[in-house]
Amino acid sequence: MAETRRVTSASASPRPKPKPRPRHPPSRYPPRPGLDETHDLRPPGAEDRPRPVRPAPARPPAAQVVLASREVPRRSTAERVILAVLLCGLGLNAAVLLANPRLSRSDLVLGGTVLLAGLILLGLMELCRRSAPPPAE
Fold first, then answer.
1. What's the rounded mean pLDDT across residues 74-85?
2. How far apart are CA 44 and CA 98, in angstroms?
3. How far apart are CA 130 and CA 72, in angstroms?
4. Quick one: pLDDT band at residue 67, thresholds 50, 70, 90?
5. Positive or negative CA dihedral for 106, 111, 117, 123?
6. Contact 112, 97 (CB under 8 A)
7. Could you give the CA distance from residue 119 to residue 125 in angstroms, rounded to a whole number?
8. Maximum mean pLDDT: which of 19-23, 47-51, 82-86
9. CB atoms within 10 A of CB 89
């Protein structure tokens, strides 16, 4: 008959047990104060002093408010050239997209994207031109 062998227990392993570590290592920083100590950050005695009351700024009645319509500055020569080139390019792009039936789907997507980007650029140019500060004279 075959003889059974006993399995050695885990406690007899030659490897030593690891050292127990503390649950939380000591912090380098002092503990934070509670919320009740930090919610009011004014110096002591500040709540005793009355706050200075600022008078509300006087607003003219609605009838006296004059909306100053600021004139939009005229376009310079360089702006006119850039605008003309951009408009010509967008016009050619739109003409090719509409007139050529043999364009592939990817050509149509790319042309539409370029057309949309050009229109957005036109809008941004006009918006920046209108919101620019008036020129110093």
1. 90
2. 75
3. 6
4. very low
5. negative
6. yes
7. 10
8. 82-86
9. 13
Cα separation, 15 vs 10, in Å, equals 10
Who wins on pLDDT, 23 or 6? 23
3-state secondary structure of 13: coil
Q: Which of 45, 121, 116, 34 is nearest to 83 (CA)?
A: 121
Q: 31: which DSSP letter?
A: P
Instruction: Give the DSSP per-residue string, 38-93.
Output: HS--SPTTTTTSPPPPPPPPP---TTT-----PPPPPPPHHHHHHHHHHHHHHHHH
37-47 pLDDT per residue, tens: 556 667 766 66
Give the closest residue to 126 by CA, choosing from 66, 88, 86: 86
The verdict on pTM exceeding 0.70 is no
For the segment 6-12, the average pLDDT, to the nearest whole number, is 59
Pairwise CA distance, residues 128 & 68, whole Å = 19
